Amino acid sequence: MSSDVRFTDFKSDKQPTWCPGCGDFGTMNGMMKALAETGNDPDNTFIVAGIGCSGKIGTYMRSYALHGVHGRALPVGTGVKLANPDLEVMVAGGDGDGYSIGAGHFVHAVRRNVDMTYVVMDNRIYGLTKGQASPTSRSDFETSTTPEGPQQPPVNPLALALASGATFIAQSFSTDAQRHAEIVQEAIEHDGFGFVNVFSPCVTFNDVDTYDYFRDNLVDVAEEGHDPTDYDAAKDKILDASKEYQGVIWQSEKSIPYGEKHGLDTNTSEIDDGAPEGAMDLVREFY
Amino acid sequence: MPADFNWAIGGEAGDGIDSTGKIFAQALSRAGRHVFTSKDFASRIRGGYTAYKVRTAVDPVQSVVDRLDVLIALTPRTIEENLDELHEGSVIIYDGERTTMENVEIPEGMIGLDVPLKRLAEEAGGAIMRNVVALGAACEVSDFPIENLDSALEKRFGSKGQSLVDNNKEAARAGRDYVAAEYDHEFEYELETTDADYVLLNGDEAIGMGAIAAGCKFYAGYPITPATDVMEYLTGRIERFGGHVVQAEDELSAINIALGAARAGARSMTATSGPGIDLMAETFGLVATSETPLVIVDVMRSGPSTGMPTKQEQGDLNMMLYGGHGEIPRFVLGPTTISECFWKTVEAFNLAEKYQTPVYIAADLAMAVTEQTFPPEAFDMDEVEIDRGKVVDEESIEEWQNEKGQFKPHALTEDGVSPRAFPGTDGGVHMSTGLEHDELGRRTEDTEMRVEQVDKRTRKVETAREEEDLSPREFGDEDSENLVISWGSNEGAMTEAIRFLEEEGIDVRFLSVPYLFPRPDLTEAVEAAENVVVVECNATGQFADVVEHDTLSRVDRVNKYDGVRFKADELAGEIKAALQEADQ
Ligand SMILES: Cc1ncc(C[n+]2csc(CCOP(=O)(O)OP(=O)(O)O)c2C)c(N)n1
Ligand code: SF4
């Protein structure tokens, strides 16, 4: 790890094909800044991406990376981190990827509390498949597959995380560049699973959850003097549907990451040339 | 008496059938006898008929037969279920004081031993030991010195205190003494002991042990019969060798966690059965496209859907050969014996890393849950070789970078295999994706690159055909005009069936095929034979289809799909019939 890493070192030379104005640009820049700020470099960083416009992020960033299948990025990140704890692991994807097809994995990744960071680029729509309802779409939001709106309440990802035993829950807004980067940085620094839901507007298919909407409705919890280690206060904020919050909303002081609990502290990529020392004992157990 | 002795204990699930059977099997193995076990079990925890069968001989035994010499029947149904296999002179041990067993009628010609199992157990310290009393009775019947039971009892109960061990030893002796005192019958059985040193294990355990031997450091799985034993074996053991087991939330997660660990550079594995293989299919393609080495074990059971979860079948071959959308280079290894479960697992890791592909291990229930004895040398750890393939480090990385210093994880090479840089390697930064990609791993729809990458991945299979020894295992008379081909666990029954056939004057050449893809070319063998029979545990003859496809010849089929493995004598009969039909 070199100390003179700049955030642009995390940029690949591939030009993003996101629509001009897409929130994902800001989300990505903040992630790169946060990685550089926390002393990481591309050689020790592993980014796992889901599928969707958001999932393309792994292509535009420079690090070790895997762009996997729809909804399964969290398990991949889990395997990477547990097999090599020296790596900084960041998982990114969309709201459809994370809260619909991958919802089961989300709950269990939260419970497992592996020391990695999960950034969800929440545009409240399916972008890449051209504008169908996502789990965070409003119940009356008309889309090509829900002409009258989904008619179901949206998932509250923060509440889902809290109910699953999350140790770090934050929310940010991609255009509020400085704050967003700070919040992701805190998630990286958290010992355990750092979850950040990022409002990352889709300028092409979502004309409701727009930049203007978030700008008008966003409240920064830090400005309200919120104490993220106060569980009840965090719960109130998370369940308050009247506002959109930004900041670190919940952080447990008791978080023990999975790897630490299980004594996983070594890179397992190195193995012996033959069977490991003492392997014959395994045979004798069957005597 | 015949050279082999067949014994069983049967009752309701929850009666402790499994552990009692295992104790007896272990005692026999420790007494230097070969053992082969099989289990009949239903998919429920309490209630439902279940049995544990042991076949034993001084010479190796590799299958079950249609004969039962001694049966411990804890329920009347046990006798009914095994009626076909019992014969004149068979001994049935039962507890006539048990209400359900009061009116049991012992079939003509058989010997019923009414032993008050529960009462004797209570006298020895607890009713729970009644199965052990029965074991003692069985020792007397088979003239098997009861001391041999002691070490098996110690192994089973030692951790729970010496007094429990002693009580069990006493219970066993009570059973033996009761039979000796109450019945003056001379039984025809006599189980000789030898000084041979054997270990007793099942296929799932052999796979787990093979994984550790191969340096596997990571396992992620989701419980499913009959693959769970692999995970249970590894849990608590792999840690001693620096590894870790994760119980995932489902199979989709399991294979993705395993994939992540593999990408981080660890030797990594998952195991499941048919329904789980279905769920893993999407990621299977990702594993191949991202060129990640991964070992995936399919312990087949009866399908489709949830089918018969505790029953034997080899119905997933097509899924393993062709499953997944698009075209996916892969290996499918099919161990044919329990010891081969170990060696094929070791090989699977080498092939996975050497060729950077997913490798299926096609195991089946019959092999996975039953135990067999082997000399410990059958698992000689000094013989384990590790090949990690083209791993690059900081020094060698430049060779694989483009002019801009970017690493090429999917470099187009002659043998189809690209270099591999573990994350953390300076200068090796790269991404991989399930999308079609260029040499750098970046998405492309360029027609030329698409074709080049597909060809590159496919070339691995061609390279393997040239470099690896994919030969079948050969048995019987190599000049015979009758050729029998099988895969998976049928080898054991078939090698014994050869002897039954010989007795009837029928010679066969038998090829047991452990490489299902890529696989050996059987054309020459098929063309040299007059009659060809492919034996497998499925209804449609999935491997027979493959043989016909590969050799452009028609073959005969012996299929079994009732949920029960082939028995050696039964298989001999079916092959004889198939050959006779072919001759007509
Ligand atoms: C198994 C599977 N089902 C469906 C798809 C098609 N698909 C691709 S992206 C996507 C939705 C992505 O939505 P979201 O996660 O919200 O990301 P966004 O594009 O909005 O950033 C879907 C359904 C797929 N790739 N794989
Ligand atoms: S469709 Fe929406 S989410 Fe996708 S790139 Fe365009 S603006 Fe961004």
Automatic annotation (TrEMBL), chain A:
**By its UniProt entry, which Pfam families does this protein fall under?**
PFO_beta_C (PF12367), TPP_enzyme_C (PF02775)
Note the InterPro entries from the entry. 2-oxoacid:Fd_oxidoreductase, OFOB, PFO_beta_C, THDP-binding, TPP_enzyme_TPP-bd
Q: Which PANTHER family match?
A: 2-OXOGLUTARATE OXIDOREDUCTASE SUBUNIT KORB (PTHR48084:SF4), 2-OXOGLUTARATE OXIDOREDUCTASE SUBUNIT KORB-RELATED (PTHR48084)
* GO term, biological process aspect, one: cellular respiration
- Pyruvate ferredoxin oxidoreductase beta subunit C-terminal domain mapped to chain residues: 202-262
Which classification does the entry list for the species?
Answer: Archaea, Methanobacteriati, Methanobacteriota, Stenosarchaea group, Halobacteria
Task: From the Swiss-Prot or TrEMBL record, give the protein name.
Answer: 2-oxoacid:ferredoxin oxidoreductase subunit beta
Highest taxon in the source lineage: Archaea
Cofactor section: [4Fe-4S] cluster; thiamine diphosphate; Mg(2+)
User: Keywords in UniProt for this one?
Assistant: Iron, Iron-sulfur, Magnesium, Metal-binding, Oxidoreductase, Thiamine pyrophosphate
- Chain residue ranges for the region called Disordered: 130-153
UniProtKB/TrEMBL annotation, chain B:
Entry-linked InterPro entries: 2-oxoacid/accept_OxRdtase_asu, Pyruvate:ferred/Flavod_OxRd, Pyrv/ketoisovalerate_OxRed_cat, Pyrv_Fd/Flavodoxin_OxRdtase_N, Pyrv_flavodox_OxRed_cen, THDP-binding, Transketo_C/PFOR_II
Query: Can you give the residue ranges of the Pyruvate/ketoisovalerate oxidoreductase catalytic domain?
Result: 13-176
Keyword set includes Oxidoreductase: yes
Catalysed reaction, written as an equation? 2 oxidized [2Fe-2S]-[ferredoxin] + 2-oxoglutarate + CoA = succinyl-CoA + 2 reduced [2Fe-2S]-[ferredoxin] + CO2 + H(+)
Q: Identify the stretch(es) annotated as Disordered.
A: 455-477
| Root EC class | oxidoreductase
Example GO biological process term?
A: response to oxidative stress
Per the UniProt entry, the Enzyme Commission number(s) are 1.2.7.3
Ranges for domain Pyruvate flavodoxin/ferredoxin oxidoreductase pyrimidine binding come to 210-455
Give GO MF terms, alphabetically.
2-oxoglutarate synthase activity
- Ranges of biased composition (kind: Basic and acidic residues): 455-475
Q: Record's CDD domains?
A: TPP_PYR_PFOR_IOR-alpha_like
Q: Which UniProt keywords apply?
A: Oxidoreductase
Extract the PANTHER family matched here: 2-OXOGLUTARATE OXIDOREDUCTASE SUBUNIT KORA, PYRUVATE-FLAVODOXIN OXIDOREDUCTASE-RELATED
Self-association and partners: Heterotetramer of the KorA, KorB, KorC and KorD subunits.
Name it: 2-oxoglutarate synthase subunit KorA
Q: What is the lineage of its organism?
A: Archaea, Methanobacteriati, Methanobacteriota, Stenosarchaea group, Halobacteria
